[in-house]
Amino acid sequence: MTDPMPLPGHVWPEFQPGWVWLCGAGPGDPGLLTLHALNALRQADVVVYDALVEPTILDWAPGAERIYAGKRGGKPSAMQRDISLRLVELARKGRRVLRLKGGDPFVFGRGGEEAQTLVQHDVPIRIIPGISAGIGGLAYAGIPVTHRDVNQSVTFVTGHDQSGNTPQTLDWAAISRGSQVIVIYMGMKHIDQIAAALLDAGRAPSEPVAVVTQATTDDQRVLETTLAACPADIDAAGLEPPAIICVGRSVLMRQALDWQAQARGESARDTDPLGRGRPAESA
Ligand code: SAH
């Protein structure tokens, strides 16, 4: 086979017919794809992609058939089981099937379920992780998901379960007590309930919150607010999903680290937003 990648010195895996590669496309910016994802795009016969995959990325698989399998809350959507079985069917036809999902396929993306179905049907798979919106999307907003002066733990939660409701299995009181920073996926629909649950659990009304919509794309928007004010502020700003919601003091770091604003010529609002003086030299 001719080497599909313009990067010599590494042996790139060959996409064999009849395989499904389950691959993360990152949060939006095509530059956040991994090299394995690019290698996959260059060899795929068919790309089965989700709603949150940027169209430019599909152009990097020029020879491949495109099949849309998007599922967005509230909109008509292909059933999950149908998608998984479609992947099985395509693989059995001897095609190189690239299943491309937003962010990381194993983070709130049902990649695990699809992989399970493929394995149950004896279809060989490869998993290609991606940059998840809850980490990379916040980084594009200038929010480090951990910072030594803020948090030693972070909790990633989903704002709705399979039925579309706030997950009953989540113990908001425990999350609230146990994690200084909470990163919420799919939280927009039920933000009122989520904010109320966190306030009930003892988080301060003034706790900093950031809402990052369409993170890492040209349409990225960031709202800085507080736990008490976030439902009303989201409404007032007219923000729409997809959004990552970050609750915790790491949001304050944006005042120093909003690198996109700085690239536009704005200066940092506060270079020491946590008020801890200069960062220590040692690790
Ligand atoms: N597997 C994905 C998450 C899929 S669930 C990942 O690892 O990122 C879909 C949710 O992810 C959205 O409702 C939103 O909460 C979040 N999300 C994905 N892409 C996003 C983006 N570009 N900006 C903001 N949120 C995003």
TrEMBL record:
Q: Which GO molecular-function terms appear in the entry? A: uroporphyrin-III C-methyltransferase activity
Where composition is biased (Basic and acidic residues), the residues are 266-283
- Locate the region Disordered: 262-283
Family annotation (SUPFAM superfamilies): Tetrapyrrole methylase
- Keyword field contains Transferase: yes
- UniProt record, GO biological process: cobalamin biosynthetic process; methylation; siroheme biosynthetic process
User: What pathway annotation does it carry?
Assistant: Porphyrin-containing compound metabolism; siroheme biosynthesis; precorrin-2 from uroporphyrinogen III: step 1/1; Cofactor biosynthesis; adenosylcobalamin biosynthesis; precorrin-2 from uroporphyrinogen III: step 1/1
Location of the Tetrapyrrole methylase domain? 20-228
Matching Pfam families: TP_methylase
Quote the Gene3D superfamilies the UniProt record gives.
Cobalt-precorrin-4 Transmethylase, Domain 1 (3.40.1010.10), Methyltransferase, Cobalt-precorrin-4 Transmethylase, Domain 2 (3.30.950.10)
- EC? 2.1.1.107
The UniProt keywords, alphabetically, are:
Cobalamin biosynthesis, Methyltransferase, Porphyrin biosynthesis, S-adenosyl-L-methionine, Transferase
Going by the entry's taxonomy, the superkingdom of the source organism is recorded as Bacteria
Supply the enzyme class, top level: transferase
Q: Does the keyword Transferase apply?
A: yes
**InterPro entries on file:** 4pyrrol_Mease, 4pyrrol_Methylase_sf, 4pyrrole_Mease_sub1, 4pyrrole_Mease_sub2, CobA/CysG_C, Siro_Cobalamin_biosynth, Uropor_MeTrfase_CS
Please give the family membership noted in the entry: Belongs to the precorrin methyltransferase family.
Write the protein's name: uroporphyrinogen-III C-methyltransferase
Tell me the gene name.
cobA
